[in-house]
Amino acid sequence: MQISPSILSSDFANLEAELRAIASADWAHVDVMDNHFVPNLTLGQPVVESLARVSPVPLDAHLMIEDPDRWAPGYAEAGAGSVTFHVEAAADPVAVARAIRAEGARAAFALKPGTLFEPYEELLDEVDMVLVMTVEPGFGGQSFMADQLPKVRAVREAVRRRGGEIWVQVDGGVSADTIGQCAEAGADVFVAGSAVYGADDVPGRIAQLRETAGR
Ligand code: DX5
Ligand code: ZN
To answer: Does ligand 1 have an atom closer than 6 angstroms to the CB of 60?
Structure first.
């Protein structure tokens, strides 16, 4: 069970300090948005490269961008320990996953709420993690979509059937109130942005999420 706080909800003027604040987490979730795949714009490869140099925990890059076929391997090269691309944007998801792994990072694919998992089940052979979005990608602070839990369950079931060590990540609206349901459905990596950075005691909130998910 792992916690990956999203720095999308942190202070972008103080990213190094904001990363230090989550040193007790397992990953730092970095939301890359290009204003095309989603209607929001954040940061790109040069910033990821700088963050990777100072982060106390490995970077979990979530690419909400068009043409991951072209751009995804660059984020692994920039030093992200895990690179997640959206299947909706990829022309050749198998090639993207292989290219990420070839750069030495863990590879993952993400599913928007409206995207079914079943057509992508074979892709499990190529990745280390599957991200099930529990909000529409684009913004932090949205409400958790409980209707995505059956998808989490389906991914976990498929992973179990095939064997192997594939992680199941949830992202969007994950808080102390919703993390238990996600864990129960089979998620084992939890992204939380506003729930972590909105807390007065950030390490305390990470510990609370960990404990609640483990229950
Ligand atoms: C949304 C991003 C999330 C976001 C989560 O498009 O992918 O990672 O930061 O924020 P919260 O936890 O506030 O829903
Ligand atoms: Zn994300």
So the answer is: no
Task: Read off the pLDDT of residues 39-67 as tens digits, 9 standing for 90 and up.
Answer: 999 999 999 999 999 999 999 999 999 99
Whether the complex's predicted ipTM is more than 0.90 is answered with yes
Is-catalytic flag, 201?
no
**Which are the contacts of 18, defined by CB distance < 8 A and separation ≥ 6?**
7, 10, 11, 197
Superfamily of domain 2-214: Aldolase class I (3.20.20.70)
Read off the pLDDT of each residue in 150-159 and give the average, rounded to a whole number: 98
Residue 126, pLDDT > 80, answer yes
**Atom in ligand 1 nearest the alpha carbon of residue 136:** 6
Question: What secondary structure, in 3-state letters, does 58-93 show?
Answer: CEEEEEECCCHHHHHHHHHHCCCCEEEEECCCCCCH
* CB 177 within 8 Å of CB 212: no
194 lines ligand 1 (CB under 6 A): yes
**195: its two tokens:** 């729930």
Q: Is residue 31 in contact with ligand 1, taking CB distance under 6 Å?
A: yes
31 a catalytic residue:
yes
> How far, in Å, from the CA of 107 to the mean position of ligand 2?
15
Residue of 11, 26, 31, 128 marked catalytic: 31
Question: 139 falls in which pLDDT band (50, 70, 90)?
Answer: very high
pLDDT of residue 111: 99
